[in-house]
Amino acid sequence: TQLLEQSPQFLSIQEGENLTVYCNSSSVFSSLQWYRQEPGEGPVLLVTVVTGGEVKKLKRLTFQFGDARKDSSLHITAAQPGDTGLYLCAGDAKTSYDKVIFGPGTSLSVIP
Amino acid sequence: SAVISQKPSRDICQRGTSLTIQCQVDSQVTMMFWYRQQPGQSLTLIATANQGSEATYESGFVIDKFPISRPNLTFSTLTVSNMSPEDSSIYLCSVVGSRGDYGYTFGSGTRLTVV
Questions:
Q1: Of B42, B94, B111, which has the smallest distance from its Cβ to A103's Cβ?
Q2: Residue A37 and residue A44 in contact, taking contact as beta carbons nearer than 8 Å
Q3: Residue B109 contacts A where some CB pair is shorter than 8 Å
Q4: How far, rounded to the nearest angstrom, does the alpha carbon of residue A81 sit from its chain's CA centroid?
Q5: pLDDT digits (tens, 9 = 90+) for A61-104
């Protein structure tokens, strides 16, 4: 069974601090996606990583895909209150085309 | 990427009743997906809805409880039947985004409370 784990589950930090969120699995994924979900909204795709070792940057967010394509990290530099939300990683499911499985999420709160 | 309109955005329903959630996409899509997100938790796939065929349900979800319609390539409905308080969740529909990013586009969700 494919499973994605995320850590930490909850994170509360001061504005301006840096943080890293981790997404791990024992399974190999052909791609991993990161989403952010704000209260009352559906998840919004931030990035997809496809190649082992790949690093992608989106303003203050840096995403990395592990060399073995089993894990990924999201690093936020100088966090802002607007970064508050639930961060979800998702990976392609082996059982069906176009289906993904989601990790349990990391709830981030950035305090002004 | 596609734009999804989902309604209602929220509802409070009585135990034993049913609620139908609608999802309209602004472009034609082959597959639509329905997810449940229980309070404070991640997303669990309920079923995949293909136009012209019966929906494919994930383990733990059955058609009698969550009937799905997919009358055309831009629209789908999910009904939550004979509701109990345990059905209180956010229900989300989604479609595959553009092939370039492999991601999903989600509706804004329906927050259901069963009392």
A1: B42
A2: yes
A3: yes
A4: 18
A5: 999 999 999 999 999 999 999 999 999 999 986 655 567 889 99
